[in-house]
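Deviations from the work plan: none for this task. Representative record:
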Amino acid sequence: MTAHGTVSSKRPSMAIREDRLWQRHVEMAKLGATAKGGVNRQALSAEDIAARRLLASWAGARGFTVTTDPIGNVFVRRAGSEADAEPVMTGSHMDSQPTGGRFDGIYGVLAGFEALEALEDAGIATRRPVEVVAWMNEEGSRFPVGAMGSAVYAGRLALDKALAVADPKGVTVASALAETLAALPLPGVKLGGKVAAYVEAHIEQGPRLEAEGRTIGVVTAIQGSRRYAVEVVGEEAHAGTTPRAARKDALSSAVGIVTALEKLMDDPTDTVRFTVGRFEVFPGSPNTVPGRVYFTIDFRHPEIAVLDERGGRIAAVAAAHARGCAVSVTPLTDVPPCVFAPRIIDLVRDSAARLGLPHMDMPSGAGHDAMHIATLCPAGMIFVPCLRGISHNEAESATPADLAAGARVLADVLGALADR
Amino acid sequence: MTAHGTVSSKRPSMAIREDRLWQRHVEMAKLGATAKGGVNRQALSAEDIAARRLLASWAGARGFTVTTDPIGNVFVRRAGSEADAEPVMTGSHMDSQPTGGRFDGIYGVLAGFEALEALEDAGIATRRPVEVVAWMNEEGSRFPVGAMGSAVYAGRLALDKALAVADPKGVTVASALAETLAALPLPGVKLGGKVAAYVEAHIEQGPRLEAEGRTIGVVTAIQGSRRYAVEVVGEEAHAGTTPRAARKDALSSAVGIVTALEKLMDDPTDTVRFTVGRFEVFPGSPNTVPGRVYFTIDFRHPEIAVLDERGGRIAAVAAAHARGCAVSVTPLTDVPPCVFAPRIIDLVRDSAARLGLPHMDMPSGAGHDAMHIATLCPAGMIFVPCLRGISHNEAESATPADLAAGARVLADVLGALADR
């Protein structure tokens, strides 16, 4: 056994190639590259289509099959020895935030692909097929429902509802998906095939692994998250002539509401995650009193009781600070906390230990596609460190060695699962 | 003398045609018409060019000359009997807010043009030329310096500085102006020719005339106004993983700053006008902690002492609520309060009285091009009512009869000034 080999004594030696994995990251980072070194590769954009084309070309070169389902998830399959066996699945997403980094999502796809290539390089025949999936629209930044592709796959979001979601320009998922498929035709598969097990690799997107000097995060759970849209409707008026008493100022109302919500979400333990990330003011002219504000709330916590109690008070708090405007609060998504399967958690921990990689158990602060797939089959995740925990930021950074270490654990776990 | 005639006994009878004036408003409202009955005809846009072309075609049909100056103001001149006499000038602007109304600005241009046509119809020769001007970019909504064309004309804003102002897409005034002139070539004139007197007609954009049942507002002054840009720079971060203590949340900071500024601007007499009209959040993704916010402050008051005292505290109040972000406050414009010339005020008041029109003296809450031209020559304004005082709003409304009444007073006053 070498540092680059896996520890399973039952199979031929399988080698992760750190250089190849890094080079694939470099190639993908060109698609939607930003001036500040990040990527802007939003779901079903031209850049996303280019990423799909690149992945498909790599898969074709290795003889893997590439398919897509009705919500635009892409599957790369390496066949198993039992044709009818349910596949073991790994993957993540290729879409990014508008000012996103080079590793969030794409790492899980490329680490999975490296595992497939390592199996292929070593000539290992697995009983089950092993599939790498690129889930559609995990970020939810263009189409405002995150983890959309995996939610539809798991039956937690209706296909029709997902297809009807529109981006800020009014383009629906259905329309963008049709364009994507026209640009890159792929054989279609049915929605939601059965899965034997699912393991997703991802950068941590938080500071803990780096702070504690560990290479592998053994992910035990994902905190729950809820998203809301708030619309405040007042009345446009002239900034110079309209007395305050006669105004229905949507910006002033929205500022009061956000202030009150920050108070509602106040938490001495700093466990609550409360974010207003999109905040749009109309018409947006310096000398016009704003007539309308639209903003989003992202609210997360590991405990469902906290999500229920504070989440349930958002609408009343918003209404109490309307200042003469009409306020509506619309729940967009509600993802309960997710606890991963003990046997997958154990496999990841054992593999890291046998490979001699410093590791720790930890929950995930971010949501991931794994939270939906965990409702279908035993699931788990593997985290690797990222610089200063910075993510959803063009400055996102990770080292080739850490990325390869995570891929090594992933390949090991997938190999074990594929022979069960 | 009839209700449609003027009262001057020194000149032949001059008739304002209410139907013609209304029809010209209907034609102009088609250029940039919005679904809700308003207009979006921002400075130097395709719609603004169409409005310039229409005005020029009407002017050509009556034998008036049309010229433009280096900042894109458009002048329609009816010659006087003394070729070298300084002209009497009237006018306003043709650009609108992004969701603007059908009367703000364009009324002053069309009322002035109706006055020119009434003089022409009646065959009246005036001593001085009478000019109708359409000032460029009064609204400042696309290019964020309001009353730009008149400020440059009056020498209160340097031409080079104005030409360098860019819209949110990065298009400069210089570039948009070159496109405008290419689309509609007009003979050029030098900047800032001398003016004998200036009178501007405008809808009130406030509720007082309607509330008090008056048709004509005799405008005595314009309150002063200052505009500022505030930029808050924090750090983008993942909404699910980043603890509050580790965040530099630009939205949270900006909300705190606006709240503190509202307190600074609090005024029991409701005379202070404080508006945050543009407020932009970047990157604007629901699950990313905002890294940057840009917002504008519009602050107005009739007294320069109040403008100085409270305006001077804005930067310190903003800095005190930075919450770990970097905050910069940039003054954009500073227009002192303007008091109009007593002899113009008297002429407007006397004309309204002689025409039997209910009238009242009043200051203007809104800024107007007249505030800049008042530094060059005796100046004044005429207000007519608008429904509920609603302006900078697609629902802006005024009656044909009130518009014609204002044009009648304007024609009367221009006629008197042009013979002095």
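The CA atoms of residues 270 and 301 of chain B lie 10 Å apart.
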